Amino acid sequence: MVRLLLTGARVLAPDALSAPHADLLIEGDSIAAVLPPGTVVDSARPFDASDRLIIPGLVNGHTHSHGGLGKGSGDKWDLAALLTHGGWIGGGRVLQDKWLSTALNAVENLKKGCTAVYDLPVEIPAPTVDGLDAMAEAYAAVGLRAVLAPMVADLTFFQATPGLIEALPEPFRTRAEAMRAAPAQTTIDAIATASRGWSHAGRGIVLGCAPTIPLHGTDAFLRACRKLALDHDLLMQSHVGEARYQMAGGEIRYEGATLLEHMDRLGLVGPWFSVAHGVWLTESDLALLAERGAGLSHNPGANMRLASGIAPVRRAIRAGVTVGIGTDGSSSSDNQNMFEAMRLSAFASRLWEDAEEEDWLGTAETMRLATQGSSKLLGLAGGTIKAGKPADIALLDLTHVNWAPFNDAANQLVWTEDGSAVIDVMVGGAWKLRDRRVLGLDEVKLARDANAAAERLRSVNAETRAWAQEIAPHVACHCRVLARGWTRSKRLLRAE
Ligand SMILES: [Zn+2]
To answer: What is the whole-number distance in angstroms between the Cα of residue 460 and the centre of ligand 1?
Structure first.
């Protein structure tokens, strides 16, 4: 077994409140000991980590690897607009594009200090065994751990949103009405087949199942997803209560029940399940999540970019919900920077009108959410630097201007650091980033391939894009009217 002794560094304490000098002994894929500086360890290969801050690898609780090729696609888009444009952002892709997009997403996560991601990739029209294998290969090449949970639906966005098709003028209505999602059975069979032949678990890449948005699945489909997950022991994640129009749509479709209550009635909510976003979850939704042992990934970057709102994270924590932090995909928040996600999480927690200081997220707490909290969502044991934990760590250069001077580890990790001081990253005891270079692939070739693919996809998807641009204002108008019928306070009052 390889034994490596990292010497001379500061090591972030498990509570993230301090970062004393310590040496770190790595044995095989795990942390064997955190030792007083200068401890002599026989037969361990030394690694000089002077002027480094060692932190647990950040864990991204929610991303979409198909966004790797789609970054910077939109500007003034809310969620409804993003979903309207989704067809061309992820459309027309061949197998190599799926590998490429995942590799791009994984590289950005790794270079910004992340060691594991909860990924909800979409394949249009439906997940495929080859596609999922290609994505897993991309993760393996870069060296990230991942939950790969295909994002699936059996209803289109137009079918899923109450009143939307009827509200569209012609010729948009006819075309939107004729659109169909892939047959439910095709989707379920593909994930089941992929799961039976899955060969990537030993590399830290596991399958999950992500019914994308509850409204986008028929009850039969949502039940089939749960059965599939149960049969194959898959984690589940879904976008629940991301935007207000969805909460309104849920009350219409589920006769007064919230989106989460409806999912719970179908048996989807349990310790295997996490909500992405949860911006508009009610007090009783949060209590339900906690009671079921389910989690929540807080993704404030996307929530701000898409004008969705701010998730009630402090309320979720107080209710007993496991909370992690995510970036969301690069077609909805456009980068994979967990440092930024932490900073926005802590900032956003202070913007509630009624928030007292005790309601704000502190920096050490935010750091724990982005490591220990997100790890739980992914079913991982990591997130802290302690003996026995997986050796998933990031080294930050303390001579970088972000750390000159070193005043306080947690405050600077959340307030100052932007990923640019990340210099080395280790996953499972093996270096994946050294001196800011990804070891598993050629980044220059990756960029060249990405530009070639993007150029081809722009041409393949041009017509779908033009149509989305024309229809988007009509969609936005309907969803805004729908949203007006639902407010958190109205719902909260009703719940009390
Ligand atoms: Zn998402």
So the answer is: 24
Taking a C-beta distance cutoff of 8 angstroms, is the pair 287, 296 a contact?
Answer: no
Query: At 60, which helix (H) or strand (E)?
Result: strand 58-63
Residue 36 alpha carbon to ligand 1 centre in Å:
42
**CA 266 to ligand 1 center in whole angstroms:** 22
Instruction: Report how far ligand 1's centroid is from the alpha carbon of 386 (Å).
Output: 31
The CA-based angle 43-44-48, given to 5 degrees, is 145
In angstroms, the CA 293 to CA 143 distance is 30
Are the C-beta atoms of 62 and 326 separated by less than 8 Å? yes
pLDDT over 60 (residue 405) = yes
Q: Residue 118 phi/psi, 5° resolution?
A: -100, 105
Give DSSP secondary structure letters for 407-419: --HHHIIIII--S
Of 259, 252, 88, 161, the residue nearest 474 (C-alpha): 161
Measured N-to-C along each axis, helices 462-484 and 244-253 cross at an angle, to the nearest 10 degrees, of 70
CA distance 464 to 466: 6
**Res. 6: pLDDT tops 80:** yes
| Contact criterion met (CB below 8 Å) for 239 and 276 | yes
C-alpha 435 – ligand 1 centre gap (Å): 31
Instruction: List the alpha helices (DSSP H) in 369-487.
Output: 374-377, 409-411, 443-460, 462-484
Average pLDDT over residues 409-437: 98
CA separation for the pair 127, 166 (Å, rounded): 30
Indicate the residue type of 416: T
Question: What does the block give as tokens for 118?
Answer: 């909860």
Q: CA-CA distance, 457 to 478, in Å (whole number)? A: 29
3-state DSSP assignment of residue 223 = helix
**How close is the Cα of 124 to the center of ligand 1, in Å?**
16
Cβ atoms < 10 Å from Cβ of 393 = 27
Please tell me the pTM assigned to this model. Answer: 0.98
CA–CA distance, 245 with 288 (Å, rounded to integer): 21
Ligand 1: centre distance to CA 45 (Å)? 42
The string of pLDDT tens digits covering residues 299-311 is: 999 999 999 999 9
- Condensed to tens digits (0 to 9), the pLDDT of residues 194-251 reads 999 999 999 999 999 999 999 999 999 999 999 999 999 999 999 999 999 999 999 9
20: CA distance to ligand 1 center in Å? 37
Summarize the chain as % helix, strand, coil (round to 5): 45, 20, 35
Rounded Cα distance, 8 and 3, in Å: 17
119 CA to centre of ligand 1 in angstroms: 9
